[in-house]
Amino acid sequence: MNSKIKLALEKIVGTTNILTQDLNPFNTDWMNKYVGSSEIVLTPQTTDQVSQILRFCNENALKVVPQSGNTGLVGGSVPIKDEIIISMRKMNKIYEFDLNSAIITSDSGVILENLNNYLFQYKYQMPWDLGARGSCLLGGNISTNAGGLNVVKHGLLRNYVLGLEVVLPNGKILNLLNKNRKDNTGTDLKQLFIGSEGTLGIITKANVLCIPIPNEKKVFFLELKSFQDVIKVQGFIKQIRNEQLLAFEFMEGKILHKNKHRHSGNKLPFEFQEDKYYVLLEIAGQSLNVDQFSLDMMEFTEEIVMDQSEKEAQFLWKLREEIAESMGKMGYVLKYDVSIPPDKFEWLVNEIYPKREGPFHVYYGHVGDGNVHINIVFESLSELHKEEDKIEQKLFGLVKSQGGSISAEHGIGQHKRKYMELQKGRDVLGCLSEIKSLFDPNGIMNPNKLL
Amino acid sequence: MNSKIKLALEKIVGTTNILTQDLNPFNTDWMNKYVGSSEIVLTPQTTDQVSQILRFCNENALKVVPQSGNTGLVGGSVPIKDEIIISMRKMNKIYEFDLNSAIITSDSGVILENLNNYLFQYKYQMPWDLGARGSCLLGGNISTNAGGLNVVKHGLLRNYVLGLEVVLPNGKILNLLNKNRKDNTGTDLKQLFIGSEGTLGIITKANVLCIPIPNEKKVFFLELKSFQDVIKVQGFIKQIRNEQLLAFEFMEGKILHKNKHRHSGNKLPFEFQEDKYYVLLEIAGQSLNVDQFSLDMMEFTEEIVMDQSEKEAQFLWKLREEIAESMGKMGYVLKYDVSIPPDKFEWLVNEIYPKREGPFHVYYGHVGDGNVHINIVFESLSELHKEEDKIEQKLFGLVKSQGGSISAEHGIGQHKRKYMELQKGRDVLGCLSEIKSLFDPNGIMNPNKLL
After folding, report:
1. Is the pLDDT of residue B405 over 90?
2. DSSP string for A426-440
3. Predicted ipTM?
4. Could you count the other beta carbons within 10 Å of the beta carbon of residue B325?
5. Which one of B99, B287, B438 has the shortest CB-CB distance to A438?
6. Fold annotation for A331-411
7. How far, rounded to the nearest angstrom, does the alpha carbon of residue B380 sit from its chain's CA centroid?
């Protein structure tokens, strides 16, 4: 790192906000799949500092990577080479929650869980929830339009972001903050920054519409004989309880069976069978009428478990949430988050691995909103690398053939860049590139990601 | 109209899709406030025709106005001068409704009510509803991000548009169609066209996420003593029945009192008092428990009326919906659709007309989502024109001072162009202009609207 540059940056953020040693946690994603070699991490504390950093970097053609909680899965928040990392974690003020409008105003560097802890006093909560809630930051959530567990009920994160403050690559601060649920004054510029993975600017503040914590919640676990039954149950619940359906998560029995030894202290809801299909579903609302709900579910299964306490509910959720982590412990994992019509999930997996042979693989996830996760485990990284391209070309081709999406919620990052033309088509990609050039003519923002 | 141009356009759309006479309904908005002088209306029937029209117009620097139902309130869909009108009403095919995903695929020229009639067979409905439902078109709804009656529950129209097909000013057809609830593959280009009032391209097809028709619905009418009580009831319902609250509409007694002679055949819910405040609210869901709800409401009012039939519900809604029309019959009306924090509505009106003196004026509307309508009636158009600027400068200045929006749902059109800098600030406006130039370098699309 050129010492003149370091000095100039230090002058902007102060000596306590510049790191040049022990940068491994910033250079590597949490899966250890993507590794950069940045020599400098900045932790600005104000929007003005972010603005000065970007202006300086733009004028000197220095490339930067904005970084939030670094919990992404597609290598979007770590450098490719030696880009300057701008870590947003010190911009962590919550300004206010307006109870009348249910809108929170916050810096972008606040941890999602901290937002929920703050909102708890008002009996409100954030409208999205992710496994990474304890470490992901608001700005990262927004800039990746993160998906998560409650999309089936609440819809996309994008729908709740009412306002943003954004710093453009040239240092200009765009005030797109807004505390009105309805503001219909033309092209909604802030939309461009939601989901753009830090390629167009850095989000520094946000207004988010929050939701009341429901009076009553109940988690159910179902054992089903076939994947077709999973689809049927889902359709049925959407018809009779659409408003109350908070989550609808599907898991193959083979992964729950494999994980069962991890829970010696807890009573499992079922003797998990490898060839069965399991559903975790949560309903929430004012008057749930759970007995009727259980009866309704009996039409589809003889086996149904309902939580008897908040603690049991948490344990049932744990069975679902730990899958990602437990796969990671089994070996080197290829993870996919595709969207296709729900009734095609099983077909898709069978096309990749006829007769379900090949390396250990499972599909599971947010079937309620059309998004399934396919995880494939390899014994070594070299084996994974050998297979990766082959699998992806086939998988993404099949997904595209069904009108699906190659990324339902994880985003593009480094991982899926080369499939963007397959997904978007040349004309759309051309438009996106022109917009990128408009905002970032020198290409300093998160280079070699997304586009 | 140059006959060579006419011939070329006729060659693209065919003789049955070009009109050069009796163009008054196309040149004038339904309020008779904005009047253009176009000499030609095209009614293309395919996306390819739209593409050829725009390519030809772009190459020959001919300005165009896209027009849907022409039900807007800000003069956005009528020409300023002699622009070519592209009426989308003949592109009215509904392609499919996928019951599994609840997504409809349709041409943009379908009437909103026709979409609902089609969806009825599946027990689904469109997620937004407007007074103009019988004549407004899907594409117009989307290109203006129309608001309407159910935003308090369902959120903005924008949230339900999953995919679009758009023709750019240069004739390029962008396929942004998408039938996945979750598609997180970077910058969401389609967002740019939603709410851009036809200044960036023409929407030809759309995928929209629909919602199930609720099992049970109930309309209530409340009489309240003060506007503060209106705010209190709203806060209370959001706490106890947030999920079920479909609409929360407020009306001043003085307009209901004035309209009462219109309903000689029907029983009014109340003897409307000029100094009282009235609320129409609708709840919808699975098990409404309406008796408990009525009891809860008694805490705020002694007077509450609940519909006893679908017909009565419709009549109660009529009392609210006819206000716009009845104001029009009283004289020449200035109409505003501002967003501000709900507890500031009364203050705002009092600031404009201290002691509520001056010309006849009322405020009413979607108080549940922070959007109030202020209507001011003048006896002549000349009087209206004399006052318009003065009122707007004051009103929009006050709205801005409270962090509000000068347009909650009607949009900008011709009407509010000159207040865009007040609303957005210079930097944001600069960005929007650059995006406009990127898509429409020759400025042919809906000129002198929005920006």
Report:
1. yes
2. HHHHHHHHHHHHHH-
3. 0.94
4. 11
5. B438
6. Alpha-Beta Plaits (3.30.70)
7. 26
